[in-house]
Structures are given as structure tokens and as C-alpha cells.
Design brief:
The chain is mostly helical. The protein is built from twelve helices and three strands, in the order αααααααααααβββα. Helices cover about 60% and strands about 10% of the residues.
């Protein structure tokens, strides 16, 4: 290996029982191409790790964002699983220094290339799953992804203003918002729904192509009203 993996195992919070999986996760395809005795690289583990990451991220976001819809949760998950996010996490644990590259890739910025780092991080999750199942992968995820999960969950209010408004009223012991359908206008194939939300002893109104979207927009108006002044 490029350097001892003991520190890496400590950083990710999981010690491999079968080191072959860790070694394989850290083996870039360029290394296999230049070493005839190396029969595998980390691409298959990357494939597995991508699925593992999707599952663990989905579960974490589901738990942290009880008011988010399926579509909103999918948007949040995509922010966690994209290459840029994964590469940034890999950089924080100096993963590039542990990877095995062919000479050409190593000399041409392989250890710092974001695509290599993102792929290797997914392979690492796949390797943990192969070595110790879901519990092992969960340990790695819990050690490497909490800051990203927290940051992503904190931005969920932008995706779900209705849920955020309800949480605000609960936290401040205020009557919960109530939504009232006022009118539906326009052709059947393209109706426009007008919704009133009653909250803070006020009424906020919005119109949209679906009742849900109108409710979200009305809630957004109510939230804007408290940015500069808290309700009494």
C-alpha cells in the first residue's frame, strides 16, 4: 500500500477484518493496468458503494426531515451523493494519499483528481459493506457524513416552507397554521388554485397550479413576514 492503512481505518471508524476489501477499494484501475498480477480494481466496489451510499443517505434524510416530500428528499440526497461532495469528504481524510495508482496517473494529478477521490470514497463504503455488512458501512457513513447531513438538513426549509412554518409555530407555542382553499380557476387541464393560510392572526394568500404548491407559497409568505419581526 502507498502508506499504512491503520490511520485511515481509525479515521473512518471501522477496522476491516479482511484487509483485501480495503486494499481493493484503494486500487485505481490504472494500477491494475500496469500490474499484470493485479486482477481487480475498485470499480466494482464503487458500483456497490454508490448503492450503499444512496440507501444510507436516504435513511438519514428521512429521519432528519419528517416534513419533506419524496421529491424534496430526493433533491437533498442528490446534494450528498454528487461527486463534488464526495471528493470534498475524501480530501478531509486525505484519501488520495492511500490510493494505488499507475505511474502515469500518479504523475498526472491522480491523487488529487476529484473524480478519483469520489469513486474511491464510494468504493470504501462498498468495501465496508462486503467486509461487515450494513453495520460496518453505517459506521463509516456515520463518521464521514454527519456534517454534510446536518448542512443539507438545515437547508431543507428552503424546499419545504410549509413544514418549516409548522415547526416555527410549535417552537413558539403558537396556534398551528390552517390552510383554506379559496378558489380554483382556469381550464381543467391547467387550473389555478388560490390558498389562504391563517397564522399569526393574519392571512397570507398565494396562487399556483396545484393546491400543494399554493400552500407552500402561502407558507413562504408567512415565513417572510417574520424575518424582521416576530409575531406576538
Amino acid at each position: 500500500m502507498v502508506m499504512s492503512t491503520r490511520l485511515l481505518e481509525k479515521t473512518i471508524g471501522y477496522r476491516f477484518r479482511r484487509k483485501k476489501w480495503l486494499e481493493l477499494a484503494l486500487t485505481h484501475p490504472s494500477y491494475r493496468h500496469e500490474n499484470s498480477d493485479q486482477l481487480e480494481d475498485n470499480q466494482r466496489l464503487e458500483y456497490l458503494g454508490d448503492a450503499v451510499l444512496g440507501l444510507l443517505a436516504a435513511h438519514a434524510l428521512y429521519q432528519r426531515n419528517p416534513n419533506a416530500t419524496e421529491g424534496e428528499l430526493s433533491k437533498l440526497r442528490s446534494g450528498i451523493t454528487r461527486d463534488e461532495t464526495l471528493a470534498n469528504i475524501a480530501e478531509t481524510i486525505d484519501l488520495g494519499r492511500h490510493l494505488r495508482f499507475g505511474k502515469g496517473e500518479a504523475q498526472n494529478g491522480g491523487p488529487s483528481r476529484k473524480s478519483n477521490l469520489a469513486d474511491a470514497l464510494e468504493a470504501l463504503l462498498g468495501a465496508a459493506w462486503k467486509d461487515g455488512g450494513q453495520r460496518a458501512a453505517q459506521k463509516v457513513f456515520d463518521n464521514l457524513f454527519p456534517a454534510v447531513i446536518n448542512k443539507t438538513s438545515n437547508t431543507s426549509s428552503d424546499l419545504n416552507p410549509k413544514g418549516t412554518l409548522q415547526e416555527y409555530t410549535q417552537q413558539h407555542s403558537l396556534p398551528q397554521p390552517t390552510y383554506e382553499s379559496i378558489a380554483t380557476e382556469g381550464p381543467d387541464h391547467s387550473p389555478q388554485h388560490t390558498i389562504h393560510v391563517h397564522v399569526f392572526d393574519q392571512i397570507f394568500s398565494a396562487t399556483a397550479g396545484s393546491k400543494r404548491e399554493a400552500e407552500q407559497r402561502a407558507a413562504e409568505q408567512a415565513l417572510c413576514s417574520i424575518q424582521n419581526e416576530s409575531p406576538r
